[in-house]
Amino acid sequence: MGKEPPVQVADKMRGDRPPRRRTAAAKQPAKASPAAAAPRRADGGRRRKPSSAPVSGKGRPLWCYYLLMGLAAAVFVIGFYYFFIRPFAYRWKPCYGMKAYGVCLPAGYRVHGFDVSHHQGRIDWAKLRLTQHTPFPIRFVFMKASEGGDFSDTTFTTNFNRAREYGFIRGAYHFYNPKTDPSRQADFFIRSVTLEPGDLPPVLDIEKKGDDVDQLRRNLKVWLDKVERHYKVKPILYTSYKFKTRYLNDSIFNTYPYWIAHYYTDTVEYKGQWTFWQHTDVGSLPGIDERVDLNVFNGDLEQLRQFVLPDTL
Predict the structure, then answer these.
(1) Topology of the domain covering 96-307
(2) Which of 104, 129, 147, 149 fits 184 for a cystine, CB–CB 3.0-4.6 Å?
(3) pTM given for the model
């Protein structure tokens, strides 16, 4: 018989022992310790605890960013109110006087009028005449006749004739251009407008100062003198309250009847003498589809009739 090869005890024990079963706990991977899990900084130090205040992309705290945004919004709101709301706030004020023609009329004035140009379009003068029989009758009207040295208002001739036909005291104005020769502008107005007894004196509408205020003043005097010699009456000077006080408030221009443009206020702030007051640009009159400028005369109807051109020119 052959002999069995020698068997080592260790091998025998491995072969005879049944395989061990792994428990559920043993199947779970070993948990790393907090010290091992936390990454270490390059300099070997410990990671610092992050700050509780959020930081913007540029390194500033976010509260600074929000503060600047709030200040910018406040400046915008204040600026918007100052330039776009405050000047027109009078439109929304309660009317404690008499309301007519879509606005609150200035108190204490009995003679009302309006002014128009081609911007108002076609006017129904028959409807407009009905305003002469209201508690606030419309008595006079100014119409744009010319501008600069060569622009004629397309509605002037029709409106000027219709105004007299329907019983309104009428007047004509010239819109002055500081860049055009004043003598040429005066000649153009004279050719465009034939005034008759009963008409209001000619009007110079000045709203732009140009580049040189001193030159403007000299040129305006050229226009005024030439027109006065032709019509034999002192022209009316129309301009805003601010323009008059800044550029034309002296002994020369104060001698002309002043038609002041001053909106959204209860009273005229100008301290000098004035003849007409354009108190709003948002009036509403029958027979006119667009908004219209409304005016008052600083006197009664009899004084207005004495102010017009006399029978002998």
Answers:
(1) TIM Barrel (3.20.20)
(2) 149
(3) 0.72
